[in-house]
Write a structure and sequence with these properties.
Oligomer: single chain
Number of domains: 1
Structural class: mainly beta
CATH topology: Porin
Distance between the termini: 42 Å
Strand content: over 45%
Shape: globular
Number of strands: 16
Order of helices and strands: HEEEEEEEEEHEEEEEEE
Strand order of the largest sheet: 1-2-3-4-5-8-9-10-11-12-13-16
Radius of gyration: 25 Å
Number of helices: 2
Helix content: under 10%
Largest sheet: 12 strands, antiparallel, barrel
Length: 298
């Protein structure tokens, strides 16, 4: 009888330990902060040119919580940069705030379902610069903090055929556009109705992500996102971002990033004075100091 009780206790202990391992929580943290600086100084330089100074900073952090077949990822990306060329005022060259929260649950070897929330905005006012008839520089405000601000909420299925590639499809997506600056809202900037500070759309979303280690100390990431609203089905908003990271050593690295955006609701003056929808593109090359804030698991 004692042996039977002891055996039962051992079996029960094994089951409890096994269940605890299955339900154990693993948290990993990654984060870094980078600072970039560039300067050109000229004096009696025959080839010509202008003095310039450029500053930039990049911050990102990612926290992943894994429990059994479920995973919750929270990420913050922030970038801000500016430059002064010659006698011009100091001008913004890069500005982005991105918050991502993603919960996924595995339902098969390569498939799962999940919920994703993505918020995007900027920190400082954005301007364009022209010269009036008197030769004076005139700045025009075209964007600001939360003008625009974008929030997308997705519920859908994930397909991950490999460790480096994943496709997510959401037939139920809410896209919210915010324009908190009353001056911009008054003219209906970024697709909101004139005088309104927000716009809501319901549609479907397709997201493809590639995270590829090219070689030692070199990695490449590409994120391609398509959204179409059911009210304007066939008009596809596109956001394609790439980032190439080249690590020189523990302290120095170089990054080259691109972003392509097409949104029919965003009208841009391409030079003829008539705002129209157009493909937006930017690239950012940075080289500088990089500080690892944390890279640990618990």
């Amino acid at each position: 009888m004692k042996k039977l009780i002891l055996l039962s206790l051992l079996l029960l202990s094994f089951q409890l330990v096994h269940a605890q391992e299955a339900d154990s929580v693993v948290v990993t943290r990654e984060g870094s902060w980078g600072v970039n600086f560039a300067n050109v100084g000229l004096s009696n330089w025959a080839a010509g040119g202008e003095n310039s100074i450029a500053l930039g900073t990049v911050f990102n952090t990612k926290i992943t919580r894994t429990k059994g077949k479920s995973q919750w990822v929270n990420q913050i990306d922030f970038a801000l940069g500016g430059a002064k060329v010659g006698e011009q005022s100091f001008r913004k060259t890069d500005d982005a705030i991105i918050l991502i929260s993603q919960f996924s649950n595995e339902i098969g070897p390569k498939t799962g379902w999940g919920f994703t929330g993505i918020f995007r905005t900027q920190l400082l006012e954005g301007q364009t610069f022209d010269v009036d008839g008197m030769g004076n520089e005139v700045a025009t405000k075209i964007s600001n903090f939360m003008a625009p601000g974008y929030l997308t909420l997705n519920v859908g299925v994930d397909y991950k055929p490999s460790d480096v590639f994943q496709v997510s499809f959401s037939p139920a997506t809410g896209k919210f556009t915010f324009v908190s600056d009353d001056d911009l809202a008054a003219v209906g900037a970024f697709g909101v109705d004139p005088g309104s500070n927000s716009r809501a759309e319901f549609g479907s979303n397709l997201l493809a992500t590639l995270d590829l280690p090219v070689m030692e100390n070199i990695s490449f990431k590409s994120t391609l996102n398509f959204f179409t609203g059911y009210g304007t089905f066939g008009e596809i908003d596109t956001n394609w971002e790439t980032l190439l990271v080249m690590k020189v050593n523990e302290w120095f690295n170089a990054t080259f990033g691109t972003q392509l955006i097409y949104d029919k609701d965003i009208l841009i003056d391409t030079g003829d004075g008539v705002p129209t929808d157009a493909v937006q593109f930017k690239h950012v090359l940075n080289f500088g100091l990089n500080f690892k804030l944390f890279d640990s698991g618990s």
